[in-house]
Write a structure and sequence with these properties.
Elements: H1 2-20, H2 41-59
Helix pairs in contact: 1-2
């Protein structure tokens, strides 16, 4: 599943990069959770930010 998420993110990132004529890697909110040494880094970063947002929501 994570590999499917990574492929979708890569595709969307590529489309936006082409549209804006610049590499969009590192520009998304989830990028602050990115560890490029991991397999499927974008998908894992999305999972981390989602978990962090849920944790923050529960604390409110």
């Amino acid at each position: 599943m994570t590999n499917d998420k990574q492929q979708k993110i890569d595709y969307d990132k590529w489309l936006e990069s082409e549209k804006k004529h610049k590499d969009m890697c590192g520009t998304y909110d989830f990028c602050k959770y990115c560890d490029k040494t991991l397999e499927n880094p974008c998908a894992k970063a999305v999972e981390k930010i989602t978990a962090a947002l849920k944790e923050t929501a529960y604390k409110k």
